[in-house]
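Weekly structure sync, notes
Attendees: PL (lead), two postdocs, one rotation student
Agenda item 3: pending single-chain targets
PL asked that the sequence for the first pending target be pasted directly into the notes so everyone works from the same version. It is reproduced below exactly as submitted, 295 residues in total.
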Amino acid sequence: HQLSHGGPGASQAADKPEDLPKIYDYKDAATHAFGWANLPADVTVAEFEKVATGEEATVALATITWDNAFAEWGRPPFRVPDKVPWAKMAEALNMKWQSQCSTARSLTQENLFYLATKIFRNSGLSVEDLPGLYVSWSQFCREPLPDRNFTFWEWFYRVMNLTSNQMRGPWGEGYIMGFVSKQRGDELLMSKEHGCFLLRFSDSELGGVSISYVRQDQQQKAVFHVAPFTTKDLSQRSIGDTIFDLKEHLTIVYPNIPKDAFKKFSAQPTPPQQKDGYVPHTLRTHVPGDLSSQL
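Predicted structure, written out during the meeting:
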């Protein structure tokens, strides 16, 4: 197949209200985004995913999201604005997040402001600037983020999948801050006592979450960031188990939630069984060194 993305503006597919089955979303988006006119009408999601690369599927979902959120009823299919007000984008991102993660917990105003700074590529943005700003399709899905090889949508989609698949429970309980910059996370933690930590979505690792924590000894106080955990990592050892692996460093979830709140998200331990003559093993997370050696 030929990869030829047209973006919002043109149409090659049948009209589609939001409540049609997901299969038609994939069919229409694939036809529109990649020119796959030879896809059979009854193509299944599984068949689509076999022929689409991860990037193509992600762009198709971006097309669906933009079309569902911003098209006017009765318009030609995929004939949508090339840019939309930030307020509408914020609402669309929140609805997509809640739907994908099956959660009643909305993105907070702080979460949405962080997303605005990312999508506009402007860390110096102020809340007062937002009402007059418009998000373009290119900012949403085509232009890479600064110093990265992925777009805003790719980044958002991957952390959304990570949360949906591996951290739905902790997110729903409000234990994951997620959308916060490393600098802002450091500021928050430096105001707290030794062992306070937060979970932050990585800026550099697609679909990654990092644990940031503050440590203090007699001489100094500093914030450390554990290398990001991905879906693959957390499918092998849950976020709850990972936090308890680091119990000597982690005590309180920012701002004041006891670490034991994560106990219900730990996997039930099962005694290792010897199999085929092999000695069983278990995976655990460990961070090396003391405070002075890590600075």
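Discussion points:
- Strands lie at 83-85, 134-136, 196-201, 209-216, 221-225, 252-253, 257-258.
- DSSP finds twelve helices and seven strands in the chain.
Action: rotation student to compare against the earlier draft before next sync.
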